[in-house]
């Protein structure tokens, strides 16, 4: 047996099949249904040195594992993991940046077009056998033409979205806490200022305490009655009640949502609205990209246990991420 085969890795809940197969070949893998300390077998608790997970890992769970060194999170957004607590405990948290950037940006543009040009509804019209004789699907009220696009969160994915929007011939501006060097897009120091300057807002911001419900009634109202809101970042960044109200009373024209405040529950009020396009959080969900994310989860564990350096530590954990 190799040393790695004596290293116990815990998979709490769902994990990508390819990642699980890779880990099974290298490590001693333990599985439980979810990251609940009550589900940990007592005789294993002191042996678990790594976690591969796609879900919530809270401070209690981290504290229940005295030998824990690394949490390899499947996904670039790691709001489900208490990374500050992990860092304080000397545990490194890794995520899966870059490998999903282009896929998520593709999805964002697809969602934008579907929302503005009503393509899913037009397809349903054909499938329902309604395209007969002179009956045509009505021209969409909204268009991408002459729109001004604002990006909330011009990071890796935001930049990939911006490049695509530019290729569509539309001007781009953005809001981050800090200005991005080397881009020509107009910067706005606040989200409200950005919303006032555009009619189409694409949120690619992470879910953090600072972004919680940042897209609120005021921000939505600033987009205007032709306004379109697209969310490919995190549901927590939006005040969902305010969004529903804005869509009902015409404060904005339409919304396209891949993410929701309380997934997988999507408020019925949103589903009932004709001016909303919904997706089941599938921004990165192609077999190709999920495999790349899964490989990065396993690579982080391998590199940690082989050379003591995580490959893609999250910013909060850089100080405990080893030799780099
Ligand atoms: P990233 O490179 O870290 O970009 C995040 C951007 O948000 C940065 O430009 C950051 O700029 C900005 N930001 C962070 N906090 C902010 C705040 N309080 N106010 C204003 N701007 C803020 O991350 P990424 O790889 O592009 O991923 C972005 C997010 O997309 C992830 O966190 C995840 O939630 C989401 N995502 C969704 C899917 C999906 O399937 N729908 C898939 C992947 C990722 P500053 O630091 O300068 O503020």
TrEMBL record:
Q: What's one GO MF term for it?
A: hydroxypyruvate reductase [NAD(P)H] activity
Q: Name one GO cellular component term.
A: cytosol
Task: Enumerate the Gene3D superfamilies for this protein.
Answer: NAD(P)-binding Rossmann-like Domain (3.40.50.720)
Q: Provide the D-isomer specific 2-hydroxyacid dehydrogenase catalytic domain boundaries.
A: 33-314
Asked if the record carries the keyword Oxidoreductase, the reply is yes
Q: Is NADP one of the keywords UniProt gives this record?
A: yes
What keywords is this UniProt entry annotated with?
A: NAD, NADP, Oxidoreductase
- What Pfam families does the database record attribute to this sequence? 2-Hacid_dh (PF00389), 2-Hacid_dh_C (PF02826)
Q: PROSITE patterns, from UniProt?
A: D_2_HYDROXYACID_DH_1
Domain D-isomer specific 2-hydroxyacid dehydrogenase NAD-binding: where? 109-283
Family per similarity comment: Belongs to the D-isomer specific 2-hydroxyacid dehydrogenase family.
Quote the protein name from its UniProt record: Lactate dehydrogenase
């Amino acid at each position: 047996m190799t040393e790695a085969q004596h290293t116990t890795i815990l998979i709490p809940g769902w994990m990508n099949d390819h990642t699980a197969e890779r880990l099974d070949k290298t490590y001693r893998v333990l599985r439980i249904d979810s990251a609940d300390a009550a589900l940990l077998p007592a005789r294993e608790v002191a042996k678990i040195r790594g976690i591969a997970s796609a879900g919530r890992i809270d401070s209690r769970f981290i504290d229940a594992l005295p030998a824990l060194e690394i949490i390899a999170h499947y996904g670039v957004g790691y709001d489900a993991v208490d990374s500050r607590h992990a860092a304080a405990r000397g545990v490194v948290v890794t995520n899966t940046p870059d490998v999903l950037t282009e896929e998520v940006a593709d999805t964002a543009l697809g969602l934008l077009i579907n929302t503005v040009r009503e393509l899913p509804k037009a397809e349903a019209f054909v499938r329902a056998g309604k395209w007969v004789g002179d009956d045509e699907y009505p021209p969409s009220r909204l268009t991408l033409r002459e729109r001004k696009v604002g990006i909330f969160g011009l990071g890796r994915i935001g930049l990939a979205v911006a490049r695509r929007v530019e290729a569509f011939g539309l001007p781009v501006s953005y809001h981050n806490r800090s200005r991005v060097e080397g881009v020509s897009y107009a910067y706005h120091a606040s989200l409200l200022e950005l919303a006032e300057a555009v009619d189409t807002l694409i949120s690619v911001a992470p879910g953090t305490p600072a972004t919680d419900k940042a897209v609120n009634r005021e921000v939505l109202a600033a987009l205007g009655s032709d306004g379109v809101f697209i969310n490919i970042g995190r549901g927590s960044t939006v005040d969902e009640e305010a969004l529903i109200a804005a869509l009902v009373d015409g404060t904005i024209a339409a919304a396209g949502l891949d993410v929701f405040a309380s997934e997988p529950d999507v408020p019925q009020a949103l589903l009932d609205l004709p001016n909303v396009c919904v997706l089941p959080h599938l921004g990165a969900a192609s077999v190709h990209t999920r495999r790349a994310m899964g490989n990065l989860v396993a690579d982080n564990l391998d590199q940690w246990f082989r050379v003591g350096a995580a490959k893609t530590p999250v910013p909060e954990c850089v100080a405990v991420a080893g030799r780099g």
